[in-house]
């Protein structure tokens, strides 16, 4: 049949319409892509503002906090044990350990208080109190006074770290978090370096105003947080919703980005929920948090024992007290660099567990070497293998805290769960403070062997936790595949899905 003129015209018009539709579609896609690019650029600009305000501030505070809790190691070799008639190393270990009793017991209650009041005010109160305690420790002239100081230092410092880590989680999305937390946590690594450097300088005041060098260490390092607390009260931002240093559109952008961060590209999350009994119980009863505390022990058993003992380890290799203080600095700088490298890699690859395993594996190599080297015959080699010990212990920590922070929602459950992780995890500090025995110097066989065992256990538990998270993700993927997103949304309201948090079918765990 011959093609009519009308058919040709219709065909021509159809092709034109199709080309126009294609152009419109392409144009629409390009506009959408450009808009996404603009949104991402704006997000990065706003995040830089947050970074400059929040991260350096928290890092400074943690630096001060860690110096104050660990400077007892510097005071020890500056003459404290002799002046207070502490005799053998058991009394020193008791003083170190006592800090962790209230420190571990009060972290969960502290984060509950944090959710009920402004974080800036609560953290400023804590800082002022621990600075006052540390200052008074510089005036003690008895062992019982030292014990009282360490106990109340644990009381007043207990809430700071869980509060600071939780505060970071309400500002950043899950794969933006660890880089910032690493910069914050590196302050702990550098605290060892600064503490040694400060102690070296402050010790020169020995005899001034009738005070020993170790007393000046406590006194000066206690006055700093007292002064900082008065500043923190005003300048520490509480949340994206109330940040005065951001404009309203910038605040709205941050809140919107965080709400979309469920890990699946579907669903929503919230940081505005109110804390109640249900959220507290949910945070305390999640078995995966308890499993993560075992991984945490790999860090705390080694770190707290190592931090309090490393000046003595170096001192026992034949170096003078002053040089032992200075030689701790490169070790902590190395640990800080490794922590930052691991954090960036973890965020960029969107993985947590492989970096936890890798970090502890490095520490295992260091501990094996410390047990194998005949001390003090090879002081240079012994000193060299302190580097993988410190680096391997420090770098998995931010991976773990970020991993659990990524895996808990809504924010009330996260506040309780992260505090529980840090609280029970820090109980490893009690063990770590008692396994480096003075009578075993300079070999410290018990300390190195126990730390090695805890690192091995942490690696095993990391595999277990990864398996559990991966299994739950698969179950939820299958649920949506079988029933469809629309059916699941019809079953629950948006508010119910938000309050379900990490139990929502649309929430995915980080691996």
From TrEMBL:
Transmembrane segments: 54-72, 92-114, 121-139, 151-171, 183-202, 214-236, 289-310, 322-343, 355-373, 385-404, 416-436, 448-469
Domain Major facilitator superfamily (MFS) profile residues, every copy: 54-474
Localization per Swiss-Prot or TrEMBL: Membrane
Gene3D superfamilies named in the record: MFS general substrate transporter like domains
Topology in membrane: Multi-pass membrane protein
Domain of life where this protein originates: Eukaryota
Any Gene Ontology CC annotation: membrane
UniProt-recorded Gene Ontology molecular function terms: transmembrane transporter activity
Keyword annotations: Membrane, Transmembrane, Transmembrane helix, Transport
Protein name, as recorded: MFS general substrate transporter
Organism (species): Clathrospora elynae
């Amino acid at each position: 049949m011959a093609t009519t003129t009308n058919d040709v015209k219709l065909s021509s018009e159809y092709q034109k319409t199709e080309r126009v539709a294609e152009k419109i579609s392409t144009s629409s896609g390009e506009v959408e892509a450009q808009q996404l690019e603009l949104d991402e650029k704006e997000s990065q600009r706003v995040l830089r503002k947050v970074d400059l305000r929040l991260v350096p501030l928290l890092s400074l505070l943690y630096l001060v906090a860690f110096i104050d809790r660990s400077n007892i190691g510097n005071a020890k070799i500056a003459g404290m044990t002799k002046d207070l008639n502490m005799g053998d190393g058991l009394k020193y270990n008791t003083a170190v350990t006592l800090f962790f009793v209230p420190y571990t017991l009060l972290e969960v209650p502290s984060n509950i208080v944090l959710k009920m009041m402004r974080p800036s005010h609560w953290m400023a109160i804590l800082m002022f109190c621990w600075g006052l305690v540390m200052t008074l420790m510089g005036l003690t002239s008895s062992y019982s006074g030292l014990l009282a100081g360490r106990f109340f230092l644990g009381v007043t410092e207990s809430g700071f770290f869980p509060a600071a880590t939780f505060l970071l989680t309400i500002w950043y999305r899950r794969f933006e978090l660890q880089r910032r937390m690493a910069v914050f946590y590196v302050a702990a690594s550098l605290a060892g370096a600064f503490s040694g450097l400060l102690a070296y300088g402050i010790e020169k005041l020995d005899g001034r105003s009738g005070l020993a060098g170790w007393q000046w260490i406590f006194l000066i390092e206690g006055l700093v947080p007292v002064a900082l607390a008065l500043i923190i009260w005003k300048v520490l931002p509480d949340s994206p919703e109330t940040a005065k240093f951001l404009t309203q559109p910038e605040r709205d952008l941050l809140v919107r980005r965080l709400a979309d961060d469920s890990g699946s590209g579907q669903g929503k999350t919230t940081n505005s929920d109110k804390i109640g009994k249900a959220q507290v119980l949910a945070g305390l009863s999640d078995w995966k948090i308890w499993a993560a505390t075992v991984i945490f022990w790999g860090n705390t058993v080694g770190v707290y024992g190592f931090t309090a003992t490393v000046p003595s380890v170096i001192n026992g290799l034949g170096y003078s007290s002053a040089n032992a203080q200075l030689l701790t600095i490169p070790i902590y700088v190395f640990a800080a660099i490794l922590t930052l490298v691991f954090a960036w890699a973890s965020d960029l690859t969107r993985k947590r567990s492989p970096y936890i395993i890798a970090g502890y594996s490095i520490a295992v190599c260091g501990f094996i070497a410390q047990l194998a080297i005949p001390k003090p015959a090879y002081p240079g080699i012994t000193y060299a293998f302190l580097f993988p010990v410190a680096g391997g212990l420090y770098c998995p920590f931010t991976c773990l805290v970020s991993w659990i922070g990524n895996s808990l929602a809504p924010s009330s459950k996260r506040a309780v769960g992260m505090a529980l992780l840090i609280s029970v995890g820090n109980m490893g500090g009690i063990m770590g403070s008692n396994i480096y025995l003075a009578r075993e110097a300079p070999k410290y066989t018990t300390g190195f062997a126990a730390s090695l065992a805890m690192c091995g256990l942490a690696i095993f538990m990391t595999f277990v936790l990864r398996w559990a998270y991966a299994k739950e993700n698969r179950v939820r993927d299958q649920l949506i595949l079988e029933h469809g997103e629309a059916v699941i949304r019809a079953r629950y309201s948006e508010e119910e899905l938000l309050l379900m948090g990490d139990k929502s079918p649309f929430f995915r765990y980080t691996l």
